[in-house]
Design a protein that fits this description.
Largest sheet: 5 strands, antiparallel
Strand order of the largest sheet: 2-1-5-4-3
Mean pLDDT: 76
Helix content: 40-55%
Shape: globular
Radius of gyration: 17 Å
Length: about 200
């Protein structure tokens, strides 16, 4: 039970950091929109396109899956349920039936191998099909056992694939800076692990 409590604290810390990151990004987008037409030189361009992302952490051995409001909206799960934790089976049941086997295989492989995975699947929320990309990796504890599976989900849009942007790294870098500034050591450790996994 102690690990489950640590998972909740970590999820709460990271959720707070990511909320701050989103506020900062919203301010940045607002400033970009205020640039007068012709105010930038021709050779300048905005290289980073940041879509709306959902964040999740799955405490593997306790089978508690936590996520933010964007993750919930993409999977028809309430924020209240995701805050207290749901089983991975509940999350998988929200995925289109045809996609469930490949998503389950992908998650199993990522857990056993420790490699980052990228999975594409569909969900149906309010009779609307949502095409989703999940990027995540399974972090290990001190004994090398699978501990937390953390990552992001993005609804597929053309913007995700513009200009070779790497929004996962951008969000993690921003969250890591905030975690370090606030002295959130546990969140800092896990975010560094996520960035190291993304680089491999």
């Amino acid at each position: 039970m102690q690990q489950a409590e640590r998972a909740k604290v970590l999820a709460s810390e990271i959720a707070g950091l990511l909320t701050d990151v989103r506020v900062t990004l919203d301010v940045s987008r607002g400033l970009l929109n205020e640039i007068p037409a012709g105010g930038a030189r021709k050779e300048e361009k905005v290289r980073l396109v940041i879509p709306e992302m959902g964040f999740f952490t799955w405490f593997v051995s306790g089978n508690l899956f936590h996520g933010d409001s964007v993750f919930g909206a993409l999977h028809a799960l309430s924020l209240e349920d995701l805050s207290s934790g749901v089983g991975v089976e509940d999350v998988l049941s929200r995925i289109a039936t045809n996609d469930q086997p490949q998503v389950a295989r992908g998650l199993r492989f990522a857990i056993s191998s420790g490699q980052r995975c990228t999975l594409s699947y569909a969900t149906y929320c309010d009779n609307t099909r949502r095409d989703i990309v999940l990027i995540g990796c399974c972090l290990r504890n001190e004994e090398g056992m699978p501990s937390f599976f953390s990552g992001i989900v993005i609804e597929k849009t053309e913007a995700v694939f513009l200009d070779g942007s790497d929004p996962f790294k951008a969000y993690c870098d921003a969250a890591l800076s905030l975690a370090q500034a606030r002295g959130n050591l546990l969140a800092t450790r896990y975010l560094r692990s996520a960035l190291n996994s993304a680089a491999n």
